[in-house]
Amino acid sequence: MELKGIHHVSAITANARANKDFYTNILGLRLVKKTVNQDTPSMYHLFYADETGSPGTDLTFFEIPRAGKTYQGNNSISATSLRVPNDKALSYWQERFKRMSVPHEEIKERAGRLTLAFNDFEGQRLILVSDENNKGVKGGTPWGKSPIPKEFGIVGLGPSQLTIANIEGTVDLFTNVLGFRKKGQYASSVKGQPDIVVYETGEGGTGAEIHLEHRLDVTEERPGRGSVHHIALRVDNEEEFHAWIDKLNEHNIAHSGFVDRFYFRSVYLKDPNGITIELATDGPGFDIDEELEHLGESLALPPFLEHRREEIEARLKPLD
């Protein structure tokens, strides 16, 4: 029983309309599901992914219109990376970001790969990472109707970086409970701080890594627009998913219990630093209620919310 890698990352936006514009028109991702937060259906939950909404390619956003500014700091998911096919793609993106006034850094090496860090319009911390030498989990297929040339398109999620105070507790959770293994480490960009340590699962590679940054020199992050809410890890199927719940129980890890998200099955837990981690099944998938060619075109609601459609739609502002 082994987790396959990163399933999705869920973040916060204060403006769903501007969010859709940035992630589809600037980054070229496909909006594969336009739905609502199942726990708070008055807010949008938008899912961006590859051509077919493959597991491991999915970056999602909850819209919280009154979300304040994020004060960056400890005990947070401090960076989300997005995979591109090769090193050449990074040069394309660097020029695109310059032309479109997207804040970005220079191309630099992280963990043996070339990367390009940038921010969205709300300060979301993002990193493009090259799959040039990836030998692990395969990426997805760029959206065919994307404004980005296919050879440079985003093919999925790369490593997530966790910035934490209690690194021993998080390492124990990831290695002894979730089955990750240490892969290596690389120098922090912050002078005088310990190396960032890389852990991987499953086939390994760009789509199956967590990078742990140990910091004691910063205060705890105060999340808001532009912050990450949680990271989800891939479980192959529902039978294995229930075995994971049993394993969490065996280790006395507090968790949410089984949650049916309709498009996948989930269980939520927290690491010792309070970061929310989700385990999610690869299926059933986003085409369970929409045809592949029409994903994300209309408001999709899980069956238990369908009877409230009129009320929910009345509260949501159009995205176009």
UniProtKB/TrEMBL annotation:
InterPro entries cross-referenced by the UniProt entry: Extradiol_RC_dioxygenase (IPR052537), Glyas_Bleomycin-R_OHBP_Dase (IPR029068), Glyas_Fos-R_dOase_dom (IPR004360), VOC_core (IPR037523)
Lineage: Bacteria, Bacillati, Bacillota, Bacilli, Bacillales
Stretches of the chain forming a coiled coil according to its record: none
Originating species: Siminovitchia thermophila
Database matches in Pfam families: Glyoxalase
Domain annotation VOC: ranges: 5-131, 156-282
Protein name listed in UniProt: Glyoxalase family protein
